[in-house]
Design goal:
The termini are far apart. The chain contains eight helices and eleven strands. α5 packs across α7 and α5 packs across α8. The longest helix is centred in the middle third of the chain and has 24 residues. It has two domains: 110 residues, Jelly Rolls, CATH 2.60.120; 83 residues, Winged helix-like DNA-binding domain superfamily/Winged helix DNA-binding domain (Arc Repressor Mutant, subunit A, Orthogonal Bundle). By secondary structure, the chain is an alpha+beta fold. It holds the Pfam family HTH_Crp_2. This is Cyclic nucleotide-binding protein.
Length: 237
């Protein structure tokens, strides 16, 4: 396993927006580590000792609220930089990061990471830009999860999750969302039984396909139409 993420399909992560020299600087400051499915990369409330670049596989971001309920926040895939803000702020981790499947990451210790940012400020600019995009996506996801018509609301939630997966997502590209039913219910703020009924309706309309731990958006343009409260086109292309 090398430190490159460029051969891994999917996503338009911040890592790919860095120049080869900037990527090299981060590689030189860190090391590659492999995580088994379910293994925790970093725990909510723990000291921010490092940041991560996802080279292969998928990482789930989740947090526990004051009532002790675990809520999914996002899934990050290849070429995404994760856990980078806590080392910058110096505050404890605000979320837990765990491996969904086998995950390969570049791990950069906090002190070396901060040193790279001082030497190469454009990396810091890209990280803050990425954080701003994620904040906007998170706000939009909370907004969409409150609509009155559930199939439309679920379609909108899936659209926003797809945009988290790939900022430059288009109407033509299928997207695989690696969440289980409990996690999707958490995003949509409904019970699992309500979520299952909503997914059945979207499957009936032919816009998604479901399997264990994933939902595939098979007809993105049609899903966007549903999210906007319009019937999907008959040809679903």
């Amino acid at each position: 396993m090398t430190g490159s993420a460029t051969d891994e399909p999917g996503g338009f992560g911040a890592w790919r927006r860095l120049s080869p020299a900037e990527q090299s600087a981060l590689r030189s400051a860190g090391h590659v580590k492999v995580w088994r499915p379910g293994q925790i990369l970093a725990l909510q409330g723990s000291p921010p000792t490092s940041m991560f670049v996802v080279l292969h596989g998928w990482v789930k971001i989740s947090a526990t609220n004051y009532r002790g309920e675990d809520a999914p926040l996002a899934a990050r895939g290849p070429a995404e930089i994760v856990g980078e803000l806590a080392p910058i702020s110096g505050l404890p981790r605000s979320a837990t990061m765990s491996a969904i499947d086998e995950v390969h990451t570049l791990v950069v210790p906090k002190d070396k990471f901060l040193g790279v940012l001082r030497d190469r400020p454009r990396i810091a600019e890209e990280i803050f830009r990425n954080a701003a995009i994620r904040l906007q996506q998170s706000d939009r996801l909370r907004l969409e999860s409150g609509g009155p018509d559930f199939p439309q609301r679920l379609a909108a939630v899936l659209v926003e999750l797809a945009l988290q997966h790939a900022v430059d997502w288009t109407n033509e590209e299928q997207v695989v969302l690696r969440f289980n039913q409990g996690e999707l219910a958490g995003f949509a703020r409904v019970s699992r039984s309500t979520l299952i009924r909503g997914l059945e309706e979207l499957r009936r309309l032919g816009v998604v396909h479901t399997a264990r731990q994933r939902v595939t958006i098979t007809h993105p343009r049609a899903l966007r139409e549903l999210a906007a409260g319009r019937p999907p086109p008959d040809d679903k292309t």
